[in-house]
Amino acid sequence: MTGINFIGEQIGWQQAGNSFAFLSFAAALLAAFSYFRSANNDELEDGLWRKLGRIAFRLHSLAVIGIMVTLFCMIFKHLYQYSYVWEHSDNSMPRMYTLASFWADQEGSFLLWTFWQVVLGNILIFTAKKWEPPVMATISIVQAFLASMLLGFYVFGIRIGSNPFILLREVSGFGEGPLFAMADYVTKLAPTARGLNPLLQNYWMVIHPPTLFLGFASTVVPFSYAIAGLWKKKYGEWQLEALPWTFLGIMILGTGVLMGGAWAYESLSFGGFWAWDPVENASLFPWLTLVGAGHIMIIYKARKQSLFSTFVFPLLTFILVLYSTFLTRSGILGNTSVHSFNDQGMMGQLLIYLFFFIGLALLLLAINWRKMPREKQEEELWSREFWMFLGALVLLMSCLQIIITTSIPVTNKIFNLNQAPPVDVKAYYNHWQVPFAIIVLLMVGFGLYLKFKNTEMKQFWAMLRLPVFVTIIASAISAFMLKETNAFYIALLVACWFAVTSNFYYWIKAKKANFQKAGASFAHVGFGLILMGALISTSKEKVISENTSGKSVESLGKDYSNATNILIARGDTLRMGDYFVTYAGKEKKGHDIVYHVQYFEKDSATHKYTLQFTLNPLIQINPQMGNVAEPSTHHFLTKDIYTHIKYADLSTLDDENKGSEFTPAKAQMMKVGDTTFSSNSIIMLVGLDTHIDKLKYHLKASDIAVGALLKVTDVNDKTYTTEPVYVITNDMVQPIDASLDGLGLKFSFTKIDPENHKMEISISESKHTAKDFIVMEAIVFPYINVLWMGCLIMVLGTVLSIRSRIRKNREAKASALLSPNE
After folding, report:
1. If DSSP codes are grouped into helix, strand and coil, which group holds residue 570?
2. Less packed terminus of the chain by CB within 10 Å, N or C?
3. φ, ψ for residue 2 (rounded to 5)?
4. What DSSP line would sit under 624-689, residue for residue?
5. Cβ within 8 Å of residue 2, ≥6 positions away
6. What is the pTM of this model?
7. Which residues have CB under 8 Å from 54's CB, separation 6+?
8. DSSP result, 447-499
9. Residues 310-366: pLDDT tens digits?
10. With contact defined as beta carbons under 8 Å apart, do 383 and 454 qualify?
């Protein structure tokens, strides 16, 4: 809108944000150019260009911080005239979720990624020493690409980036509305703000994305060192510096992935911690190759073997991070994942970003391939380096299988195919990934017992004798207690036990239980426990919410089953698994309707019920984006009981509408044959009656009248029929209600949608007969704490490994200074 002096718009924030964004991009380009010149010049010019590179990168850093502060202030101050703020926050949102609003969309998450690489880059300026110019040149050009994602302007009709500082009235297709013809439109925006996606309103969303993006950012460090090694033709030296960073990335990215699983388990109602969703997969496959990179580098450090692979794995890892970014942000996964971002017109830019670094990596590998030193001898079959290399290849194959299936929408688009993703994704991926997991776990189990170069087999088998014996006993007992009969799962269980027992025994026997030397052993033990906990909890999960109410829930639709969903009326107590459950009531807390479900145990002698615990699943009300159910879980040492609401009547709360005899009408669009619920009956739309007796209803001959034939079945399976009538008289709709007094129900036929063959039926219930009810699902996850314990142990082991690598690096550098001729 032009010519209007808008009141209270505060466009200074936009001007500041845009200035910082352009400064960030320009400074990153200058830093990349300066460091490039520094890496390719003599010592004198190197120092001058390096100094300019540092200044430029720090200027870029300040600009990134300026962007973040500007965006945070806009969200905190509720400046809804800005599209990003209006899209992802509202006045009623708890303050702690302001952080989640910041990275709720593409612009904020790119900014978070950029910020973490700023942090890592500034650390490397002080620590990289002679590697600073080539390493920082690479990181700076990566930063320039990321900074371009926030520019938000067009070049020859091509969109460059997405601007988080665009005003709402500047959004195409939105700003033309009549609201923006008002000078004071800003004052009218707060009630319309969309607010944060309900799925993101969880404390895990405050800590999970920063951790995950720090993990993504950390992959740029080994990538940059690998580029530097190829660039400067120092094929082995770079790994001494890159190895601790690689394990740091393994720890942080792995923690971010596991946090995502914890968020899904606590906040999403699909019932579990991992669903093989494409976005989940996209965060997993860079971690797999990064783990492979770390172990390949250990091989080279110890035996100067597998040199080419030490470049391939870290280069591939960062490229997979970029490919993951393309998958999740280009919109190409829109039909296969509920977590991906929509296409915001940046697919081309993301592809340029991806192919630039693929081309750079391939070019440097091609130039240097013939110049790299070749291994003088083959690895021995029973050497540690051979099996570590084989393990890295298995991780790579596992990764490739996940990538190929996740990329079905990509291959469909490229080759104009119509491949369908797997219907049962869990079964499909498990079929492929369980064998990979078994192989890796077995290698993890015996790998530390092997020596570099060659192994004395007598000693090897002697050391493994006790772990193998314990594994056999523990696996047999576990399989018997779990009643496991699936051969694949038994093999995986054995492999898990072997990885855990052998690595723990190795720490006790070979490392003398020295905590400082526990890194590799603890990381492997944790990995084994994670897969063991995942195996047991998912393969032996048990749905206990079999419907014992006597009223079928299957009429609600295909997603409801009497075998897995229980209907509980308020105040009723029903048997459910080993418990008796009562729906005790509900209350509204902010945007949430919290349901109180009490679990009792019954004393067989006294027949008294003893309350064991109460679960509080909730439904978050969000008129803008749709309501979201969040589960509630009770944790025991050996199991979790997980409960979430599948269906509930959201129209009333106890303290509302006290002056009315009936509850507010619930409108339901129905086709012939569809069914719906009241609190005490099931209602089916049997058909339409076009032969209405107009004299009976005192209608004129010119009136149009259609009846909705309803069949109503109560909890005692008694059937009633009734017929509300839809009437058009004098071009006005005047429906005639129908009542079933015995059930306290009143029906109204209020709308016809001829295009979709649907009718709107409104149902009201007498407050004297209406009974609040819920349909819920409850699942028992046995021994899931094994998984969470494994997460903690694996992270601890990785931290200890990083400390050990840093210490060994210092010792190696000190030794090199003392023996310069060696």
Report:
1. strand
2. C
3. -115, 155
4. TT--EEE-EEEE-SSEEEEEEEEEE--S--TTS-TT-SBPPPEEEEE-TT-EEE-SSEEEEEEEEE
5. none
6. 0.85
7. 31, 125
8. HTTSPSS---HHHHHHHHHHHHHHHHHHHHHHHHHHT---HHHHHHHHHHHHH
9. 999 999 999 999 999 999 888 888 666 655 556 666 788 899 999 999 999 999 999
10. yes
